[in-house]
Amino acid sequence: MANILWLQGGACSGNTMSFLNAEEPSACDLVTDFGMNILWQPSLGVELGDNVKKILKDCISGELKLDIFVFEGTVVNAPDGTGEWNRFAGRPMKEWVRELCDVADFVVALGDCATWGGIPATAPNPTDSEGLQFLKRDNGGFLGADFKAKAGLPVINIPGCPAHPDWVTQILVAIATGRAGDLALDEFQRPKTFFQSFTQTGCTRNMHFAYKVSTTEFAQRKGCLFYDLGCRGPMTHSPCNRILWNRVSSKTRAGMPCLGCTEPEFPFFDLAPGTVFKTQTVMGVPKDLPAGVDKKGYIKLTGAAKVAMPKWAEEDIFVV
Ligand code: SF4
Ligand code: SF4
After folding, report:
1. Looking at ligand 1, which residue's alpha carbon is closest to its atom 7?
2. Measuring from each residue's beta carbon to the nearest atom of ligand 2, which residues come in under 6 Å?
3. Ligand 1 test: best mutation among 221, 231, 261, most atoms within 8 Å of CB?
4. How do residues 111-142 score in pLDDT, each as one tens digit?
């Protein structure tokens, strides 16, 4: 039996909503099939007021064993480092977070806000928000770069805006069934099993990417969204076209560019007007190129692609 406690800081609840839609396994499966005991969760917990406080205090004192602490949302430090803008159960949330992280066997940061700050930490960051162990690309965050939970792992980061529900439930199952040691983490502490491949891996538009045929409007069924609409699929680490959303689709399959939400810089270009859904270019070459491709290589590749393009590449091949 693994005890899980889940709290929310500066967040929109999107990751909780996503979690409640999990299918493989579902949130119910965690309890019925994998023996997890959800001590409290913002949308599932029935306790209120002093009763919630008691659960938190019992975890901190050791009365209740805290196996997994899940945190969703940013750590809010405003105003002036006090955290008073995000109070919970009688004190600043950041004080609970610090003490709970110290007693938990495993700490999981869920969603971009908890991993590296996400949208709340975008400049000018009025809430003085940060992630548990990162602020954007910088290792450190609220807990500091050296933090390790009691079982020896740093914060396990499951990013996304929101994270796909099955990424969450599958990692929780791995931890709760004693397989945390099998989790290989990348440089941003993301489980490699989900975040080694790219959004582009498995995208149905790959052939159009290869021949440099562009999608020019949302939901167009032909073309690739990289060249005009700012798709970040070739440089974003996610399994969004391998583990489909609602089991049926993904952003790019539906004709919407990947915004790179699993990367620490998200939202890119600090949401400056004209930077979302628009490929940013310098002299006609995208500012951000597919991972591992340099400018010279890109120019050669796309030049050859255009010459080689077969006629069918400009037609809608997904006939209903
Ligand atoms: S739509 Fe995006 S993910 Fe799909 S092939 Fe084009 S760039 Fe890659
Ligand atoms: S397709 Fe891109 S923006 Fe959408 S959820 Fe996946 S990584 Fe995030």
Report:
1. 226
2. 160, 199, 236, 238, 240, 250-251, 258-262
3. 231
4. 999 999 999 999 999 999 999 999 999 999 99
Measured from the CB, is residue 252 less than 6 Å from ligand 1? yes
Rounded distance from Cα 306 to ligand 2 centre (Å): 27
Residues 185-194: tens digit of each pLDDT: 999 999 999 9
Reported as a single tens digit per residue, the pLDDT across 212-238 is 999 999 999 999 999 999 999 999 999
With H, G, I as helix, E, B as strand and everything else as coil, classify residue 70: strand
Mean pLDDT value of segment 40-67: 97
Beta bridge partners of 138: 135
43: tokens are: 């949308």
Kindly give the distance from the C-alpha atom of residue 319 to the centroid of ligand 1, in angstroms, as a whole number.
Answer: 20
The backbone region for 176, taken as left when phi is positive above 0, alpha when psi lies in -120 to 50, beta otherwise, is alpha
Strands in the chain per DSSP E: 2-8, 36-40, 68-72, 75-76, 87-88, 91-92, 106-110, 129-130, 134-135, 138-139, 156-158, 281-282, 285-286
Residue 249 C-alpha to ligand 1 middle, in angstroms? Answer: 14
pLDDT tier for residue 87 given thresholds of 50, 70 and 90? very high
User: What is the pLDDT at residue 320?
Assistant: 65
Dist. CA 73–CA 238, nearest whole Å: 20
CB 119 within 8 A of CB 159: no
Cβ pair 136, 121 in contact under 8 A: yes
- Among all bound ligands, the one having the nearest atom to the CA of 163 is 2
| Beta strands at 106-110 and 156-158: parallel, antiparallel or unpaired | parallel
Is 231 touching ligand 1 by the criterion CB < 6 Å? yes
Separation between Cα atoms, residue 24 and residue 6, nearest integer Å: 20
CB atoms within 10 A of CB 147: 16
